[in-house]
Specification:
Length: 154
């Protein structure tokens, strides 16, 4: 799908975020400036707002992982740009989080062969105009198909 503003990107993130639950893993791909952090921030802030809370959602570029208590589940936001070896994600505790948390991972390609097989991949690609983004969702898990179709329908 193609969006033509940061607000449109954020709206898709918020709608996707509504349906995420324990064990859902969203892997964000794309070059620097593609909108991965904007997407993650909008998703997280919308989940917090649904609980009547607001928090600043910084990029976890240096901390690698930020966690958010959503009462019934924890949301993990990770930025793996600085990750050197895919095995390091185990040291962060992501392997356990993949099972019982919502995980939103920027620079997910750094996981290499350790990417969870049922994850939803989102590749964000800048378009010709400054605010245009192409969003490509894909997963080997068929359960994501209906959820993505609902996003495309708006």
């Amino acid at each position: 799908m193609t969006v033509h503003s940061p607000d449109a990107t954020a709206q898709i993130a918020m709608r996707l975020g509504e349906g995420l639950g324990a064990g859902d893993v969203l892997l964000l791909h794309g070059p620097v400036g593609a909108g991965k952090s904007l997407f993650a921030r909008a998703l997280i802030q919308s989940r917090l707002a649904a609980l009547g809370r607001w928090e600043d959602v910084p990029s976890p570029s240096f901390t690698l992982v930020q966690t958010y208590d959503l009462e019934d589940v924890t949301l993990w936001h990770a930025d793996l740009y600085r990750l050197g070896d895919p095995q390091e994600y185990i040291e962060l505790g992501l392997d356990d989080a993949f099972e019982d948390a919502i995980c939103v991972i920027e620079w997910a390609d750094r996981l290499g062969p350790l990417i969870p097989p049922g994850a939803l991949h989102l590749t964000l690609t800048p378009g010709k105009s400054a605010d245009t983004r192409h969003l490509l969702f894909h997963s080997r898990n068929s359960a994501w198909r209906a959820r993505i179709a609902a996003l495309e329908e708006g």
